[in-house]
Design brief:
Distance between the termini: 28 Å
Strand content: 15-25%
Shape: globular
Structural class: alpha/beta
Helix content: 25-40%
Number of strands: 12
């Protein structure tokens, strides 16, 4: 499969890239600095600026799937930069005629009780809120799309480097927790869940989550 990954050198995107290459897909990594990526079979690095809409449209043409792991973490205005970027990405995916669009979400929008999101709890870290709000607003933008074949994969509350086990649970809009009340997932298993969805679509035009 011919896949483009926006933000393929980032915290989450790098693991999605590794999983996609391990599954022998052809992957174009759209990143700010292609030199950061080590050469690999099936990898095609390309410099990308999501604020350059016209160029982005051309870069996204011809792919079977586009995965956005774009984030605004390196910017002073995390939320503003992310929203500008994700709006451009959504519009460019449509303009380029990409059949499927998958997005990395954020756990803050998951419900911990009916009508109560994780971001609304007192324990939710303040520094994470701009990213969480951006991911939630991106989800609303996607839900408002009349025909785009999109999917958002929202991780567990804690997502960090770890083992690739391939063993995790899937859910929809509620935060998944284990027997100890913890909501965790390794970056490696998040990438497994994402590539499983790429290869066997089961959550078209919807959001889902994964956790142990």
């Amino acid at each position: 499969m011919n896949i483009a990954i926006i933000g393929a050198s980032g915290f989450v995107g790098s693991r999605i890239l590794a999983e996609a290459l391990a599954r022998r897909h052809e992957v174009t990594a759209l990143v700010h600095n292609p030199a950061k990526l080590a050469p690999a079979k099936g990898l095609h690095p390309k410099k990308c600026d999501v604020t350059d809409y016209a160029t982005l449209v051309e870069q996204l043409k011809g792919f079977d799937v586009v995965i956005s792991a774009f984030s605004g973490h390196a910017q002073q205005d995390i939320y503003g930069y992310y929203m500008q970027g994700i709006r451009n990405i959504i519009a460019a995916v449509k303009q380029a005629g990409v059949p499927r669009f998958l997005v990395v979400g954020g756990a803050g929008s998951l419900e911990v009780a009916p009508g109560k999101r994780l971001i609304d709890t007192p324990e939710f870290p303040e520094p994470w809120k701009p990213t969480a709000r951006g991911a939630y607003d991106a989800l609303q933008l996607l839900r408002g799309e009349p025909s785009l074949d999109w999917c958002m994969l929202t991780p567990a509350a804690i997502i960090e480097p770890g083992r690739r086990t391939g063993q995790f649970r899937l859910g929809t809009d509620q935060l998944l927790v284990d027997g100890q009340g913890q909501s965790r997932l390794s970056l490696e298993d998040y990438a497994v869940a994402m590539l499983d969805e790429v290869e066997n679509p089961t959550h078209s035009r919807s959001r889902f989550t994964a956790a142990y």
